[in-house]
């Protein structure tokens, strides 16, 4: 290496560098380290050999962990990073099953049909996602679907509680109890999903994203509250 | 042109099951990876294979080539269509709003401005109107639930969404068409935005009157709130149209449709309180009966009666 000049420390002698010429092949030795992501294809291939029980347990644990994140919403990015749609599917199906009304021929239309609830949840989630993307959100389509689906969990719990309360009776007291429970769970759902989704928006537009979420969970809460068993 | 079936995979030669798109897709992936290296050799190999395999192999090859070309053409068209129509960025500029702006526009939609000599400004955004339509859907659902509306061939939710979106999109298009005929200066986006914000009055009215069941209250709200939002839209249209007849046609149609829609939403989906009617109109008039919205049954009944009448005449 060319010596540094005393009067200009830190500056190499460029003139001398120009005289240097590389002749012949220069052998380079060393190791190339691949970034962490490249390790996963190997892992994926090896999971083909593991027993089915392990795969299912791993997925179930991931879903369970996300349930915990929803019930205690903290600023963790686990829900966003490893999105999956198993949890939302399970929640949506169980909610739709519990909300199942009588058949269409009955005089008392007790509640919506399975397909109605299913379509409302998924269509509503898609609309909210599109809205937040159009407003300049940085979250991806499926991440948003994942968060909105998982945040239906408190409302599913509310539905369960409502059904149990309705088994006891359907008077004014039961209505007030159901109203309070559904209100609380609705607020929980909205706050949970807001905690995850609003961060991906520019700060002054949070209200624009929160309102459709509020409306979405309001419609679901309304369906739960007005459910009357056959 | 590359990509064409220059490479024939010797292993699959015996499989003349015909063209299948999945095979083509797979082969395409493999071909892309090996394309560069084998292009030179493939030319020679192709000729060799053609001669070597005879008729059976040739038909297999032809089938594959055709399938391959169809796959490619389809894929190209699909990706072109996707990038054209599913491009969400087309709508992005219409959602570029601040909450303060939305709030201001909501309030302005209730205040008619009397400036008719100069075209009034219309905000060209879609966020507010879309949210108002969804809010109207939610309010309608609430009204339908509390009035125990029974809808046989269809669902509550479907009806609510269909009604609200149908009104917003359909009436906007119709008025835009009329505006085109009457030479009014308004674009489709502006019309959608104007009518969307005009639904704010509807939302307020229905929200109040679905919960407080007083007929006179509804009529006051209908005239007052509905009237204000209609007047605002009418004033904007008048400022953008020239000529008395045109102004009359355009504004008359819009006012009629807007007010009638509010009337329809109230009466079609809301329980009529029979007691109040009784006291107002006396016991002679039978109470308004709620009938299940059962359109196919009615048409069946109609068919039955016409069939019976026809049978009688024959």
Automatic annotation (TrEMBL), chain A:
Keywords: Membrane, Transmembrane, Transmembrane helix. The chain crosses the membrane at residues 83-102, 114-135, 147-169, 175-197, 209-228. It is found in: Golgi apparatus membrane; Membrane. It is a multi-pass membrane protein. Its main location: Golgi. GO terms for biological process: endoplasmic reticulum to Golgi vesicle-mediated transport. GO terms for cellular component: Golgi membrane; trans-Golgi network. Residues 70-223 form the Yip1 domain. PANTHER family: GOLGI MEMBRANE PROTEIN YIP1 (PTHR21236), PROTEIN YIPF6 (PTHR21236:SF1). Belongs to the YIP1 family. This is Protein YIPF. The gene is Yipf6.
Automatic annotation (TrEMBL), chain B:
It is found in: Cell membrane; Cytoplasm; Golgi apparatus, cis-Golgi network membrane. Residues 34-50 have a biased composition (Acidic residues). It is a multi-pass membrane protein. Involved in the maintenance of the Golgi structure. May play a role in hematopoiesis. It comes from Crypturellus soui. Residues 1-50 are annotated as: Disordered. GO terms for cellular component: Golgi apparatus; plasma membrane. This is Protein YIPF3. Belongs to the YIP1 family. GO terms for biological process: cell differentiation.
């Amino acid at each position: 290496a060319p010596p540094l000049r005393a009067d200009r420390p830190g500056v190499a002698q460029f003139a001398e560098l120009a005289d240097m010429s590389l002749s012949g092949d220069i052998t380079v030795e060393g190791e190339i380290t691949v970034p962490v992501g490249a390790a996963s294809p190997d892992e994926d291939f090896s999971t083909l050999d593991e027993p089915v029980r392990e795969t299912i347990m791993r997925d179930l644990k991931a879903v369970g962990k996300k349930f915990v994140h929803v019930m205690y919403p903290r600023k963790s990015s686990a829900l966003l990073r490893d999105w999956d749609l198993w949890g939302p599917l399970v929640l949506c199906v169980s909610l739709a099953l519990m909300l199942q009304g009588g058949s269409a021929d009955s005089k008392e239309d007790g509640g919506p049909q399975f397909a109605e609830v299913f379509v409302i949840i998924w269509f509503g989630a898609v609309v909210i996602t599109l809205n937040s993307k159009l407003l300049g959100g940085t979250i991806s389509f499926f991440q948003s679907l994942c968060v909105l689906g998982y945040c239906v969990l408190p409302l599913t719990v509310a539905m369960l509680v409502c059904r149990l309360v309705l088994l006891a009776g359907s008077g004014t007291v039961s209505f007030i109890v159901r109203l309070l429970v559904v209100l609380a769970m609705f607020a929980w759902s909205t706050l949970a999903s807001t905690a995850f989704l609003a961060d991906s928006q520019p700060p002054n537009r949070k209200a624009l994203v929160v309102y459709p979420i509020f409306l979405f969970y309001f419609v679901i809460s309304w369906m739960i509250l007005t459910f009357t068993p056959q | 042109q590359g990509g064409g079936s220059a490479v024939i995979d010797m292993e699959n030669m015996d499989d003349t099951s015909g063209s299948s798109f999945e095979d083509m897709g797979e082969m395409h992936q493999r071909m892309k990876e090996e394309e560069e290296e084998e292009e030179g050799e493939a030319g020679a190999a192709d000729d060799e294979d053609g001669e070597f395999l005879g008729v059976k192999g040739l038909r297999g090859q032809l089938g594959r080539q055709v399938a391959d070309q169809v796959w490619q053409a389809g894929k190209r068209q699909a990706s072109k269509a996707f990038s054209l129509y599913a491009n969400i960025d087309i709508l992005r500029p219409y959602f570029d709003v601040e909450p303060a702006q939305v709030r201001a526009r909501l309030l302005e939609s209730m205040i008619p401005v009397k400036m008719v000599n100069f075209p009034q400004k219309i905000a060209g955004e879609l966020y507010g109107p879309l949210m108002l339509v969804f809010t109207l859907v939610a309010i309608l659902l609430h009204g339908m639930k509390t009035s125990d509306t029974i809808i046989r061939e269809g669902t509550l939710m479907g009806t609510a969404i269909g009604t609200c979106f149908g009104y917003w999109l359909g009436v906007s298009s119709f008025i835009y068409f009329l505006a085109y005929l009457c030479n009014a200066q308004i674009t489709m986006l502006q019309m959608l935005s104007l009518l969307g914000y005009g639904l704010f009055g509807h939302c307020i009215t229905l929200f109040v009157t679905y919960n407080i069941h007083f007929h006179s209250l509804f009529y006051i709200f209908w005239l007052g709130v509905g009237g204000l939002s209609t007047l605002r839209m009418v004033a904007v249209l008048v400022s953008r149209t020239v000529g008395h007849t045109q102004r009359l046609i355009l504004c008359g149609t819009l006012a009629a449709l807007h007010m009638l829609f509010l009337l329809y939403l109230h009466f079609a989906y809301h329980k009529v309180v029979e007691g109040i009617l009784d006291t107002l109109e006396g016991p002679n008039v039978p109470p308004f009966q709620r009938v299940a919205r059962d359109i196919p049954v009615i048409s069946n009944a109609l068919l039955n009666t016409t069939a019976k009448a026809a049978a009688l005449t024959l």
